[in-house]
Write a structure and sequence with these properties.
- The protein is 29% helix and 28% strand.
- The protein contains 10 helices and 14 strands.
- Strands 1, 2, 3, 4, 5, 6, 7, 8, 9, 10, 11 and 12 form a 12-stranded mixed beta sheet that branches. The protein has a two-stranded antiparallel ribbon with strand order 13-14.
- Helix 1 packs across helix 3.
- The chain starts with a strand and ends with a strand.
Length: 310
Amino acid sequence: MPIKIQDDLPAKSVLEDEHIFVMTETRALSQDIRPLKIVILNLMPTKIETETQILRRLSNTPLQIEITLLQTATHESKNVSEEHMIAFYQEFDQIKDENYDGMIITGAPVEMMPYEEVEYWDELCEIMEWSKTHVHSTFHICWGAQAGLYYHYGIPKYILDKKISGVFSHKVLNKKSRLFRGFDDTFYAPHSRHTEVRAEDIEKVPELRIMAASEEAGVYVVGSADDSQFFIMGHSEYDVDTLAKEYFRDAEKGMNPEVPKHYFPDDDPTKQPEMKWSAHGQWIYSNWMNYFVYQTTPYELKNGVFVPVE
């Protein structure tokens, strides 16, 4: 599937090397196709790496997707150049009058802080409220999922005694949902977090359902009854070496991290980790895009303007 991005976005060369069809703006202008409009609110400090990971996961459908990268105006990224942010990212004021078929809200390394103390919390709340009327379906990841559950439904988070890090086995609890089309009953996904949401809190909210979970890592997928919001507690977009980079980074800082579980062969960090979740990562994004965005979106392109279907 062609992912429409700016001509010189760094992810372009990486994805092309993997034989993923990336369509630049220049080429897209020559095609008379109504693309799906997806906005990605990237809260991760590793902006370029996260962009590439998510775009890779969106690459497995025949749909043309137009990507808008969004940043918060109330927080300045310190891990990527200002030139990159200016060239490729927009701020909320620039897009708030637009409608989008889908939205992705990433995780962020602020999970140990109370939500209200996060520098950009008020802006994030404004964006999440806006998404209810301007976005057809929203896909929340890790801290973004916890923040979304807290804002929309009042679900609290809890600080864990020790970090959950590793690749864990999960079970599909809602087998009839099209989000899990093509899934085996058991699948793997990475987690990397210090906090959790609990099933007993989610089960008290009639509008929510737990769709997949892990005996070790807890709740994994939560969905709203109307399919407008999905909350994913792990990182199905991670590359094979992402957890390793996090582990060695923390070790170099003297944080004495535990070895990620079920990740390195024989739990030996000197050995190359194996990819166990690639198929799941592709399926969950593809199914979300196909069934909960493309097939049900209420928006159309009319006279060059993206508007609700009359």
